Amino acid sequence: MKHFFTILSHEIRILLVSPSTYIAAVLFLAVMGGIFTMMLDIYSSSAQETTPAVVFFQWFWVPVLFMVPLLTMKSIAEERRLGTLETLLTTPVSTVEVVLGKYFAAYFLYISLWACTGGFFYILNRFARDARFIDVGPLAGGYVFVAISGLMFVAVGIAASAVSRNQAVAALISGTVLLGLIVGSNFLPNIELLHNEVMRPLKTAVDYAQVFQHLTDFSHGVVDTRQVLFYLSGTVLALIFSIFSVEVKLLHS
Amino acid sequence: MPEDPPPPPAIEVKNLVKSYAGVDAVSDVSFTVQRGEIIGFLGPNGAGKSTTMRILTGFLPATSGIVNLCGVPVASNPDAIKHLIGYMPENNPLPEDMRVSEYLFYRGRLKEVPRRKLSARIDEVLELCDLKRVRHRIIGKLSKGFRQRVGIAESVLAEPPVIIMDEPTIGLDPHQILIVRDLIASLRGRMTVLISSHILPEIEVTCDRVVIINQGRIVASGTPNDLRREILGHSAYRLELAGEVSALSTILAQVEPTLVITSQSETDEQGFRTFRLTTERDEPLGEELLRALANNPHFRLRGLAAERPSLEDVFLAATRRTWEMVDKPSSR
Predict the structure, then answer these.
(1) Which of B316, B307, B321, B312 shows the shortest CA–CA distance to B262?
(2) How does pLDDT run along chain A (253 residues), one tens digit per residue?
(3) What SS3 state is found at A155?
(4) Are A122 and A133 in contact (CB under 8 A)?
(5) Rounded distance, CA A44 to CA B292, Å?
(6) Domain B233-307 is classified in which CATH homologous superfamily?
(7) Please, which residues bridge with residue B42 across strands?
(8) Is B182 touching A (CB cutoff 8 A)?
(9) CATH 3.40.50.880 describes domain B11-222
């Protein structure tokens, strides 16, 4: 892993000079700011049972669906299209280093963008001067959830970028897979087939793979290792898949 | 301790085969390149040049055969190989949004040039490739000639013993070709260079040896002069004279029995014709021809020149030969 940090710093630098990063950042902060304002509106009109942080993080999937594809679509697809992947892989670096370098660069950016939303809560705290609005528990839980689930979401984006040489296709694939993972998994337990006794193990598995349920648990301060494991194993799987698809495409190029 | 064996050749390819879905892109290619040589790799499009080069870099796995670089087998030591080569792929892909010096620094780090030596080495290659003026420019905004030189600078950056360049002069203007050619020639003796090109005079001037490949097979290899003799098998002369044509062939037969007229032009306004003569003899015949014709009262001689077939003729003849070879066993 000698070259991991060389590639990581190079990738972060490339992301920081590329316009698509800033488009993603502006869109993300605009959407999150909009959601936050809307939420404050509701809070100012009537008293609510939950703290703003819980409601705010309920909306995490909206930016994930467009931001993760925007941040990751370029990483491998673009290199393959330009042919720079060939020059990169004829230097003493391994595919693993390349994929991990790109993955952590994208993850770093993802986390930095989410960190920016911390500003919303700072402003709220500063001007509302009401301790009820800032409940540290759900807030920290929400951010921890974003950090852990982001590992898997970004890995899915990288895997989508690794299977295509077209950025738009990569973005579509990752957007669809993420939609299926986050929203689609909500509907899975309702499938009639799963209520069959034979399907019980599968049903249990599906019940655990509820992204929104995980969010609720994290916000309540419940950090279940099974959930963490779900995201970590998903990340590892997606990354292994990316590494293999880069290598397989070399064999058949 | 026994005497040191001679260093292994820089590139050693034995019976290399690469097939895609049953179709052989490279079939049974063998060649050897000594250290410090500059080798030109010639062939029409789709001949298997790029595939062979990619296999040499370890980027593509071969279907069968042996490839050794400096005695190291490519198939079993891909990591060691990557330290031995500088590779510039076809079309020279470069990142668009980096500065020249940043790019070289990044590549230097990837190629494990020690950090202390790296900036001195970057200065050196910038100087070598005449890139000092553009070192802070963004690569995407450079002209093709500069981009090409950035690619070359990058491939020699880590001072690898073997440099492989796929069409380094493609798309350049004649002036830039000259610069790139000088640049490659300046590596002679220090590094082994394998270049592929379509521009034949290019190869002829720069390379010590030429390997012509077609349909995945090696058609011919050797110095450009050897190839001329081997492939074309004759020398040619161009003669301009006025006089009786029928008498000419008898005089030619007296000078050299195998000398024949292969073509002749129409008579021009001064009564001269241009003849093309070929012979199987290798030795120069010009002096004897001149003596025989100039002293003959029937002829007025205006010009005689030995025709040097260009590498292009050799290339065309050699590739035509393989197509004939390939087409013949049609029973497959």
Answers:
(1) B307
(2) 788 999 999 999 988 888 878 888 898 899 999 988 988 888 888 877 777 788 888 888 888 888 899 888 888 998 888 888 888 888 888 899 999 999 999 999 999 999 998 888 888 888 877 766 677 788 888 888 899 999 999 999 999 999 988 999 999 999 999 998 888 877 877 777 777 777 777 777 777 778 888 888 888 878 888 888 989 999 999 999 999 999 888 777 6
(3) helix
(4) no
(5) 115
(6) ACT domain (3.30.70.260)
(7) B197, B212
(8) no
(9) no
Instruction: Give the relative orientation of helices A118-128 and A19-45 as an angle to the nearest 10 degrees.
Output: 30
Number of compact structural domains in chain A: 1
Backbone torsions φ then ψ of A89, nearest 5 degrees? -85, -5
The alpha helices in chain A, defined as continuous H runs, are 4-17, 19-45, 52-58, 61-72, 77-82, 84-89, 95-116, 118-128, 136-163, 167-179, 185-187, 200-208, 211-219, 225-251
Provide the angle, in degrees to the nearest 10, between the axes of the packed helices B100-110 and B144-156: 30
B115 CB near a chain A CB, below 8 Å?
Answer: no
- State how far the Cα of B69 lies from the Cα of B52, in Å rounded to an integer: 13
**Assembly ipTM:** 0.83
Which chain A residues are Cβ-neighbours of B98 within 8 angstroms?
A: 14
Q: What is the DSSP letter of B99?
A: B
**Buried-state track A43-62, b at ≥16 Cβ within 10 A, e below 16:** beeeeeeebbbbbbbbbbbe
- Decide if A86 and B107 are in contact by the 8 Å CB cutoff: no
Q: Which of A132, A118, A121, A120 is nearest to A51 (CA)?
A: A132
DSSP string, B115-156: HHHHHHHHHHHHHHTT-GGGTTSBGGGS-HHHHHHHHHHHHH
Within 8 A of B91 by CB-CB distance, chain A residues are 83
Those residues with Cβ within 8 angstroms of residue B7's Cβ, 6 or more apart along the chain or in another chain: B35, B70, B71
The CA distances from residue B116 to A10, A223, B102, B113, B154, in Å, are 19, 47, 16, 8, 18
- Please check whether residue B85 is in contact with residue B164, taking contact to mean a CB–CB distance below 8 angstroms: yes
